[in-house]
């Protein structure tokens, strides 16, 4: 990692803005870097270093930008230590993140700026945690290219296209030379397109045919790809493209799917996130509005393009806001909606996709027909076979003849991101040992050594067995049980609702299942413990929503319209329900104590049970068509997300 030490005679922001930014250098690379920084840095970045040492992370479009941007940052604040991070360090043949040692400058009163094309993959977690401000520089667009040509040549540039702006940085710098006219610079860029045509996406992005997709995901991807191909061929108008939202838990590959769609179709890929809208520029209403417009402008200038907007739930549902929040957020959400409408009305070949972990939090106007109307669920692999395909994808040529189904059995419930992490860590262990990857390396990542006490493991197994048995007896299909420790998650049950149209009776059944872990603790274990915190929270929220939002109680009043806090009558009713439903779960388990204990004992031995194994253990039960429901259990057992 390279370093630029800057003198301590720091000038105020106003001075360098006057003396530096108003006197752009004639070198195209420096012009591009300075202009990109000027566009991305919020005003507060210039002021922050006056109030103690700070840590800045600047993410650049690719590695070729790192050196130019580091020099530009060095001119903007004379007290900053600028660090470039292009790749991880290699220690004993093992790649390790970088940057932690450079935080020592903070204790000397110096601010530190890290410049990298991949901060999360290259920088040490300590650096990421210490960052006071993270800024992402956008790729060159046509407007920026015209501005730089004018700065270097002194003439107005005409005929600049999005294809020119998408050229590699070095090609752009080589085309824009001091002493040439703007026309000559544009001609050089035009020739560069012929010599080095633009790629739609990084070559490292896999094609759709290479991705391990579920049946439903494959159907959507193939249909959408056919539409993009038809638009490219002129057989289908761009107005026929259906915008949508990729929704699902974190780590399921929503961004990768959007990138792969662009790569396979040969379209460009443009991405942003709601979070970036608030961390670039000053974060005030005007800066956010500019970022929203810039995202749509970039998508329009990049056609044909797949435009992906992540963290969509960062735009709140206006119906859920109080009056004070609504005053600030309404202009932001409204502008986003009108910009989507502008994109749709343009007729340009752009497919807009959103990404979210929480689809139900989205504003209804955002997902209405004509906007992001198509809901595309991107879920973790549901079977051993599907998960084995994900392992095979990330293993590539490694372990070619190994049957991965047994490994997938132990990893059931994992997301593709978890599998990718396990595979990377296993390869690092093998490299450190100076040998090829072995199945044991991967197994050690999927099922790490368990340092929990045997008594704790038994308690967790009883807790999960309680959830599973009660769910099964109430007609909820149990898809899987796991007591494998994963981070803060010590165990979970994945089950399914018997209907998508829930009555109050169904809600009470779901709450009973959620409380069945606590019931098992009381009935079969050592008594109440902290492991049911998440279950109790989710059951409470479920019942409050039923009474105050869904009209399933004694009145139809939509209580959040009156107050953000539950009504006293609701609190009393929910408290009574929780006690009653816990008693119901206790009664079910008391009736089948021996079966529940046998199941828990079996679970301690195998750690994971599939839905078929649970069905064989508990006996057949008529199960109606179902919807996913995941119940996880927290604190000492660790909490995984529950949704009803």
UniProtKB/TrEMBL annotation:
SMART domains: AAA
Gene Ontology CC: one annotated term: plasma membrane
GO process annotations (BP): protein catabolic process; proteolysis
A GO molecular-function annotation: ATP hydrolysis activity
Residue ranges constituting the AAA+ ATPase domain according to the UniProt record: 240-382
Pfam families: AAA, Peptidase_M41
UniProtKB keywords: ATP-binding, Hydrolase, Nucleotide-binding, Protease
Family as reported in the entry's similarity comment: Belongs to the AAA ATPase family.
PANTHER family (alphabetical): ATP-DEPENDENT ZINC METALLOPROTEASE YME1L1, METALLOPROTEASE M41 FTSH
Protein name: ATP-dependent Zn proteases
Organism, scientific name: Devosia limi DSM 17137
């Amino acid at each position: 990692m390279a370093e630029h030490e800057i003198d301590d005679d720091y000038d105020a922001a106003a001075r360098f803005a006057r003396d530096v930014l108003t006197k752009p250098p004639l070198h195209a690379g420096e012009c591009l870097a300075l202009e990109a920084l000027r566009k991305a840095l919020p005003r507060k970045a210039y002021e922050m270093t006056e109030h103690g040492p700070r840590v800045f992370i600047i993410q650049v479009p690719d590695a070729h930008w790192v050196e130019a941007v580091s020099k530009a940052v060095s001119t903007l604040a004379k007290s900053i230590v600028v660090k470039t991070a292009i790749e991880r360090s290699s220690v004993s043949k093992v790649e390790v993140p970088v940057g932690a040692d450079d935080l020592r400058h903070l204790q000397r009163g110096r601010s530190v700026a890290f410049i990298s094309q991949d901060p999360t993959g290259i920088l040490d977690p300590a650096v990421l945690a210490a960052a006071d401000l993270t800024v992402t520089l956008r790729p060159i667009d046509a407007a920026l290219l015209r501005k730089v040509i004018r700065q270097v040549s002194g003439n107005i540039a005409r005929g600049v296209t999005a294809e020119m702006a998408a050229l590699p940085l070095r090609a752009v710098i080589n085309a824009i030379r001091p002493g040439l006219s703007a026309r000559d610079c544009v001609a050089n860029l035009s020739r560069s397109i012929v010599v080095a045509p633009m790629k739609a996406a990084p070559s490292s992005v896999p094609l759709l045919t290479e991705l391990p997709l579920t049946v439903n995901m494959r159907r959507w991807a193939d249909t959408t790809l056919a539409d993009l191909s038809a638009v490219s061929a002129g057989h289908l108008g761009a107005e026929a493209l259906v915008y949508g939202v990729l929704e699902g838990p974190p780590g399921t590959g929503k961004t990768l799917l959007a990138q792969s769609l662009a790569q396979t179709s040969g379209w460009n890929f443009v991405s942003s996130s709601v979070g970036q809208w608030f961390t670039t520029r000053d974060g005030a209403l005007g800066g956010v509005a500019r970022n929203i417009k810039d995202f749509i402008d970039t998508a329009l200038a990049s056609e044909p393009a797949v435009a992906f907007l992540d963290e969509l739930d960062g735009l709140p549902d206006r119906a859920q806001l109080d009056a004070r929040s609504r005053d600030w957020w309404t202009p932001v959400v409204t502008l986003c909606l009108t910009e989507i409408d502008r994109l749709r009305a343009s007729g340009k070949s752009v497919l807009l996709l959103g990404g979210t972990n929480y689809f139900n939090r989205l504003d209804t106007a955002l997902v209405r027909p004509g906007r992001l109307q198509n809901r595309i669920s991107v879920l973790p692999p549901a079977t051993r076979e599907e998960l084995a395909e994900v392992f095979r994808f990330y293993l590539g040529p490694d372990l070619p003849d190994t049957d991965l189904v047994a490994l997938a059995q132990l990893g059931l419930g994992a997301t593709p991101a978890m599998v990718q992490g396990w595979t990377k860590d296993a390869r690092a262990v093998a490299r450190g040992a100076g040998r090829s990857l072995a199945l044991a390396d991967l197994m050690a990542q999927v099922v790490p050594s368990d340092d929990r006490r045997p008594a704790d493991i038994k308690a967790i197994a009883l807790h999960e067995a309680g959830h599973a048995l009660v769910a099964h007896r109430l007609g909820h299909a149990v898809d899987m049980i796991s007591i494998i420790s994963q981070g803060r998650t010590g165990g979970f049950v994945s089950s399914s609702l018997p209907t998508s149209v829930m009555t109050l009776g169904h809600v009470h059944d779901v709450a009973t299942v959620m409380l069945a872990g606590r019931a098992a603790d009381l009935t079969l274990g050592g008594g109440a413990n902290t492991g049911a915190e998440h279950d109790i929270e989710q059951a409470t929220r479920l019942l409050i929503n039923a009474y105050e939002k869904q009209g399933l109680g004694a009145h139809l009043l939509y209580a959040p319209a009156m107050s953000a806090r539950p009504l006293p009558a609701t609190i009393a009713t929910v408290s009574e329900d929780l006690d009653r439903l816990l008693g119901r779960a206790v009664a079910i388990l008391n009736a089948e104590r021996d079966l529940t204990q046998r199941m828990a004992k079996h679970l301690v031995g195998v750690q994971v049970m599939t839905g078929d194994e649970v069905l064989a253990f508990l006996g057949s039960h008529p199960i109606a068509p179902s919807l996913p429901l995941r119940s996880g259990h927290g604190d000492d057992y660790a909490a995984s997300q529950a949704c009803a």
